[in-house]
Amino acid sequence: MEGRRRLTTAMREGERVSPLELFFDLVFVLAITQCTQLMSDDPSWGGVGKGLLVLGLLWWAWVGYSWITSVADPEDDSVRIVIFAAMAAMLIVALAVPRAFGGLALAFALAYAAVRYGQIGLFMIASRDTPDLRHSVLTLAGSTTVGVGILVGGSFLDGGAQAAVWAVALALDMAGPYFFGSEGWRLVPAHFAERHGLIVIIALGESIVAIGLGVGAELSFGQGVAAVVGIGLAAAMWWLYFDVVALVAARRLARAAVGRVQNEMARDSYSYLHFPMIAGIVLVALGMKKTLGHVEDPLKTVPAFALLGGMAAYLVAHVSFRYRHIRTISSRRAALAVVLLAFLPVATEVPALATVSVVAVLAWLLIVIETRSYGAARERVRHEEFAHEAAT
Questions:
Q1: End-to-end CA distance of the chain, in Å?
Q2: Apex CA 199: angle with CA 36 and CA 290, to 5°?
Q3: Percent of the chain clearing pLDDT 90 (strictly above)
Q4: What is the pLDDT of residues 323-370, one digit of tens each?
Q5: Which residue in 184, 160, 170 sits closest to 264, CA to CA?
Q6: Residue 298, strand partner residues
Q7: Cα angle vertex 307, ends 219, 337, to 5°?
Q8: Using an 8 Å Cβ cutoff, are 76 and 5 in contact?
Q9: Helix (H, G, I), strand (E, B), or coil: what is residue 66?
């Protein structure tokens, strides 16, 4: 029975992400698209804030399932049924996103609770014969109940009050794993890192979807140019993550001491620091969507900030990600983030196509500089040799 309920670390270590996990992640494609649409419909500071708040809730729900698949067997029938049920609940969450701060607030909160408790249920099954994991799960259940309870209560409020209460709910929910210990969790490093890499690709896919939605029924020459530049920007964001960063981070996680050290590295660098990466990509998608709508006109302040600030957030998350792993700062990426934010006053005065072109060119210039400076070390990392030397 134990072999059917979960897989041991040794059994999972050589595995790739399973088809069931990929199937589960498809729901998040819609959910992320809905977040972008929520912000696009209300391109104000308040609208963007609400969109990011909902994205944070969706992210934290996804994070729980990225941990559970290290200890629950995706080939077990009962696990499949629970995940299918969680997918159905997450679909309701995604469909409710556009009116999450309106008439569907309670539906959003209740469906979200179902998603979160599905995760707890799977953890309870997997921890049946593992006391330290069971203790961690019960602690997580407590913080989840507090967060979900506040979320449901806040759904009866309106406007800013609802957003404030939901922000508190998310903060308390996310703080649970940080304050209540990490020793009891189980983790399969290579699988865990790959899962997060795939969610980055899903978010980048949303930026491509935003390009298509921004064009509309007709395609002008300017929109065609902007679409090509947008793909170039998405490709640059992909390169910045997958060329070296993802490889080095995955290997360092695998080499970390099993237990508290490895779990906290996974929690900080993946569960926490990947959220500003995803949020940055979604903000860039919003900026691209608004750019494609009016390529010859300047972006308004909020969409311009979404494009520039989103890219800056993505870069700063990379800087923090690197610092968490090797305690050094990527000065080039940090400097580019500052440059992008400083460009904001100009972005509201020049055509939107010019703004997105500047962002794309600067991103690719950074890639060229980094690639040349890494030199042979980059090749060693990409060929899985001397990864530690390359990272330092």
A1: 45
A2: 25
A3: 65
A4: 998 888 999 999 999 999 999 999 999 999 999 999 999 999 999 999
A5: 184
A6: 351
A7: 145
A8: yes
A9: helix
